[in-house]
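User: Could you walk me through two proteins back to back? I'd like the raw sequence and the structure tokens for each, with a short line separating them so I can tell where one ends and the next begins.

Assistant: Of course. Protein one, sequence then structure:
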Amino acid sequence: MDNLTDLIKKEIKRQYGGVKAFAAQTGIPYGTINTSLYKGVGGSSFDFVMKICRLLGIRQVFNDEISQINGEYYSLVSKMEKLDARGIATVKAIIGVELDRCSGNRDSEVVKSYNGIGHVESSDDHLKALIREVLEEQRKESHEQSQ
């Protein structure tokens, strides 16, 4: 079976649950769709295939590069289907941050914190002084215990 036929079958199943439901909701005769999917959409008219693709939100695949992108998309979607609610929320948050970043909204506090842009390196002097104080206290305690 060709890639486009497989893609259409997957989308019909994902969006409508099956060919009968797709036919009923779109008004396309069940026999027409079923035959086209059984034989492969390559034998169907271009207008018919384009109509199905539009109804399913599928962009026509014209070359290997687009086919590869669709494959990566479906790989990503299949991984997301395995996530729980927390995982999906995390992915949505990351996508939102990346959309802000790509749209040039680098002033967003979320983008700044996520990308480390808003992180200000403080001087190590304060930390070093704190460590010296702790070490001095430990030395004094150790000295007092030994007396």
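----
Protein two, same layout:
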Amino acid sequence: MATVLIVDDEPNIIEVLKMSIMDEDVDVLVAGCGREALNILRKHDVDVVISDIRMPDFSGVELLREARKISSGAAFIMITAFATPETAIEALQHGACDYITKPFRMDDMRGALKRALEKKRLSDAAAAPVAADPVNLQAQQGQKLFQALHGSLVVGRSPKMMEVYRTIGAVAMGDSTVLITGDSGTGKELVARAIHAASKRKDRSFVSINCGAFPETLLESELFGYLRGAFTGATANKKGLFEAADGGSIFLDEIGEMTAAMQVKLLRVLQERRLRPLGGTGEIPVDVRVIAATNRDLQADIKDGAFREDLYYRIAVINIHLPALRERAEDIGIMAAFFLHNYAEKSGKNITGISPEAMRRLESYSWPGNIRQLENVIERAVALEAENEIQPERLPDSICHPEKYDDLSGKKLFTLPPDEPFDLEAFLRSVESSLIEQALRQSGGNQTLAAQRLNLTKGSLRHRLHTLGIRS
């Protein structure tokens, strides 16, 4: 049974808090001030502290700092009647896992307590000694998860990926929000689906949306839904994706592309666990686990004012970073063999392996497009190969002759004419036009598919089409 310490200088608030959590099967201790709370923390193993921020002797944030000095691993929930973004950020920065504003609903407090108990459990698990076997139980569970979902260890078994597996095994059964970071093409959605598939929500919906693929107004209606008459064309009520995922998980891909206004609306839903559809006045409760992903540096975006700090701390309770393929070359052979088997089987070809020289070139390449690029390269090689092994000649020129290309980006190295003027802008426009036209041809004129092929949002592609004078 977990132990919860309630700290507040108002006895009636303590009673309300005790009533809020009385059904949660926990032992409750109480303190009327920060100093009394510290004495309790020195004598008892406390799992969660629910503390008022403003108290006569010192604040809840100061209590948290002092508690850390005495090695208390308790998770903290802050409560305040004077909530501001700065107050919330300060509490979260110092290690609080949640904050609740007065007056609060009992359901909100119970939800916050469940999340805090889960965070404490995960923290204790992470601090536990790792078994002598380098592949511990949680990592094995994560590996099995990927095998069940994707038919193979498609993302490898290097030490860095074993740590990813371990984290997945540790956090999957909880409800904490998860932020998955990493370059494009590293498999962030695979990880999100693995977490959902191993969770207690696995029998409910997994809903995925690319936040960068929608303008702000459309993204809001997609996420939160709308009522009939909310805007021109809204002829019937429509559920949003949050409501559709109720009881399950929602994957917010490229969350760093959200506008500032949408970030505020998402933050409110995460705090309140309620949403208001467009055109509505009432609120709908939702029980959804949020898994977000981005290839951006959100910490840098916070400094630049492009991403809200309080939203970051809400979504990054658990952070899983996927390493780039160039950081784990030992996984390239495993994944190449997996993709080879898949595409050879689909095409009906008897291609059983990759020649040593072709493999050497694959393993020495920098892979700016990560797993997605490797898969495309193997698919192309299978389509072109007439022998029973992939030969180097079936690989793209950038892999066969890397000396002609930029090692990091895979782009061709161009040389300036020695004595002639060079129109850089015209050259770049020509290259951009050519690539966009190729993407449109390959996608049959479908702008959405062409934008995905070029790793652009549809709005960005349309802007470039207009600027360059290209007709779809």
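The mean pLDDT is 82.

Let me know if you want the two compared in more detail.
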